[in-house]
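JOB MANIFEST
job_type = single_chain_structure
chain_count = 1
residues = 181
[input]
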Amino acid sequence: MAKKIVILNGSPRLKGNTAQLISAFTKGAEESGNTVERFDLQKMNIHPCLGCCGGGKNPDSPCVQKDDMEKIYPSYKEADVVVLASPLYYWTISGQLKCAFDRLFAVAECNENYANPIKECALLMAAEGNGYDETIYWYDRVMKHLGWKDKGKVLCTGVFAPGDIEGKKELTDAYLLGKAI
């Protein structure tokens, strides 16, 4: 059965190594009949969460802040799968991705007891070095606390300059992960 996939791209390099992982994943996912929608967060006007707990009053516009999250919310609510894509920045996901992910709480505020919509999720990351432990810790706990199902992780090391990922097995891994969804 075809699934709706939303990719939150937290990389500021729109043609960098994370973008190539996303492209490989997308190719596999679309070949399997899924639909994929990608949001390049760097190009979007997204403000940090205010922690006001004032959202949830309007399911069509769940957050009190009115910015480009309004473009993401409808797709996120309909998605079966959410892909978190980011370069490794100071041993975790980029600020762009964390900011947008925090804002998804407004959708949970629309539900009794702040219940998050149940999703499947995947993680795509690229980094010059190796230091994914903190990110994996965070990601695994997010999956547990939200009740989401981890579909897989593709973590590519040894890439910094755009194009460094060419020829790396992680591109094939990303393609196969997309194909398996």
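[summary]
DSSP finds six helices and five strands in the chain.
The first strand starts at residue 4 and ends at 9.
exit_status = 0
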